[in-house]
Amino acid sequence: MRVTIDIPPDIEEKLLEKCEEKGVSPSQFILALLEWYFLKRYKAKPVEISELVAYAKKIGTERMKNCKYSDGRYCLLESLDDVFEEKTPEPLSIYKCLFCSYYTDRRREKRRESLKIDEDLIKIAKLSAKMVVELYGDKLGYRPKLKVEEDEVEKIKKLIEDW
Questions:
Q1: 55 pLDDT tier (thresholds 50, 70, 90)
Q2: In 10 A of CB 64, how many CB atoms?
Q3: Phi, psi (rounded to 5 degrees) for 70
Q4: Are 12 and 30 within 8 A, CB to CB?
Q5: pTM score, two decimals?
Q6: What is the full DSSP assignment across 88-147?
Q7: Are 123 and 160 contacting, i.e. CB atoms less than 8 angstroms apart?
């Protein structure tokens, strides 16, 4: 490929002087300049890469320790597949856990157990929200697609009384 560049005369003189000082032809200088611009300019900085690797290791070890299917050394799902294929199970790797699509955080289940929201309370909240939307939806500029039936209102009253 041939590239032609129109350079103003004053810049051309300075460019030729620099090329003579360095002992490089103008075409080699332009090639080096293009190489720098397209290759080296867009390379990631080593500091950014080391930060990314450190963060990936941190998240990977956290996932390895807190995965529902991991005991910290082996993945239950991978080990099960390996047993059916008659291979020896491979130990976990930080990077395998980092990109695992089966990851399930066991801490989430502990949080759910500690919160233990009553199912009747959820039903009351849903039915109450439907009633509020039906009663005040016109004032708020919202028109519901479904209307609250009378038996649902009775369900709410009964659930509130029982609760």
A1: very high
A2: 22
A3: -115, 145
A4: no
A5: 0.43
A6: PPPPP-HHHHHT-TT--BHHHHHHHHHH---HHHHHHHHHHHHHHHHHHHHHHT---SSP
A7: no
